[in-house]
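Progress against Task 2.4 (sequence-to-structure conversion) is shown through the following example record, which the project officer requested during the mid-term review.
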Amino acid sequence: MLKKLAVSSLLPLLAGVLLAPLAASAAPPGAAALATADYALATYRDDVVESLERMVSFNTVADPAVPFERNPQQQGFKRYLREQARRLGFDFHDYGMVLVIGLGKGSERVGVITHGDVQPVDPSKWAKSPFVLDRVSEPGRLLGRGTEDDKGPIATALYAMKAIKDRQPGLRKRIELYVYMGEESDWAPLQAFLAKHKPPQMNITLDAEYPVVVAEKGWGALTVTMPTPTPTPTPTLQPASALTSSAASAPAGAARLAAFKGGFFGSQIPEDASAVIEAAGAELEQAIRRRAEGQAGMRYQFLRDRLQLTVVARGHAAHSSKPEDGLNAISMLADALNVQPWDGTAAAAMVNFLNDMVGTGLTGERFGAIAYSDGFMGPMTVAPTVLKQTAEGIELNINLRRPRGKSKAALSAEVQQAFDVWKNARMPQARLSAEIGDPWVRDDAPQLATLLGVFAHYTGIADAKPISIGGGTNSRLFPNAVSFGPAMPGTVYSGHSEHEFITEKQLLLNLQMYTAVLVELATAKSDSINKH
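Structure tokens generated for the chain above:
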């Protein structure tokens, strides 16, 4: 595990080196951009934090039971943005789930792409409510759902635009801030909007990492279902030894894995998992404890009610596109239970599947021949995210993030073949469904040199190169779009975790960089940008 984490931490550095021939040379920001950025920091540092505080207060998690147009939290957030836009002197256009806040005129436009919805939360894991900006619990950090993903970027973009409006650096292009309200749950409304509305010619997305993201892995999902086994009929002449699959009945009096669950939502590395074992003797409990003790960073509770043992595992949540930043409670609990054969229940079959096909690794090396890697984009990652009981049995969701280098058809065939081999040997009733998306690369965006130049100026990292990430952003949907922040390279991305934050220092650094970039892009002649 440690070796995998150490190797994965080098991937961004290797990626930058491997992409170096594609990167434009950095273009240092001009005097107007630097002066406007200085003004933004000096004038609006408190306003940015206050704006973020108000935005965090709206619980903009998508609610399947309440349509967006009737969701009071979503609509309240929209009203707040409308009021902010008008107070700051911008025009505001409401297209339902797409909001556009504009500065300036002209047919040439620069787009800033963000989203206002956020991921689900477990309030019990926060020092304060996740919808209250917590500035006290961890001095220097602003904690709350959306602080990094993606309300912090919205607040900084608004006040970058306000500083530009105040200073009047001579805009040649209109600036448009897009706030989409369904990025975390449903891209279809944004796609429908873009089919009818012409987007800006050049765009930056504030929903990933620095220096500049020019490639994103393809998102994929495998759903594995282990049906609840049909009760074994009255014994016949068939000997018990002939029952070898995971669906076989457990011997009378033997320990029985009655339940297994974990995870919270599909794009989060699961922090929690639990298993219930019936007829669990003391020797079995000790064997599980010993195996669990070898898992660095994991925490376990063993709760006993006579012969029923509940094992509770606590790992560390992270964005599922960066499984190396987390500690997967589902995978690790399955490994801890791997101290004896398990049979007779759907939970037993799922533990066997996880240990046989997934393990505690990150790249699918046990799952037949599916594992592969790209020199720039890195390896495909394979992460169990949600494990739950359904009416049909136990269902496991596995999140894939795949690079270029293998076709969708080839990967789909390898997944199915590996699963079929396993199920034929272990659980013939098991089922698999797969959804596999495509990776995305845009390494020729004309604003690369400008973005790299601003980043180099404000961070001192002079040789920064474009990078690839595992996550997927709305950059894919806009022309000439690449991501620019808000997370610094080499740091753990806290969005999607139960400990989301942005440091106040980073928020204000982002304010400076976004201001300088928008001045550079919106005041330059189109030809001057394309020459870099």
